Amino acid sequence: MRCPFCGSDETQVKDSRPAEDNTSIRRRRICPDCGGRFTTFERVQLRELMVLKKTGRKAPFARDKLVRSFQIALRKRPVDNERIERAVSGIVRRLESSGETEISSEEIGLQVLEALKTLDDVAFVRYASVYRDFSHAEDFENVIAEINAKISRDSIAD
Q1: Which of 18, 45, 46, 139 shows a CA-CA span of 20 to 30 A to 90?
Q2: Integer angstrom CA distances of residue 63 from 48, 51, 123
Q3: Which helix (H) or strand (E) holds 120?
């Protein structure tokens, strides 16, 4: 692993431990050349996934983009980063275990919507407004009605 401080290729692992519900390994590293310390994460990748965009273009799946979409939707919302990471890891695991190597961006968007629905209602509406391309106030009203129906079902189940 290359040192991010001096660029040396000779870094050493000082500590390794499971992270994120045992879906990755967190490694503390040190550079013997400059003494810099940094952390890396290692994840299992079952297969190389490609995303089919609406335009028909294909792009490699990027976990970071998925994390960023959650962070944007959840900006200034009281949701722990650990819960976001669990939701992202769950989506990635489902995509990798689906058996498909090409996943449509619509499918990924639907999975993000489902995850946000359980994490935070405001973030769900934010993401839905972009994903579903809201153009009228009625679009927001329909999603809010959907959330209220879910809340009613949940309170009846309790």
Answers
A1: 139
A2: 12, 11, 19
A3: none
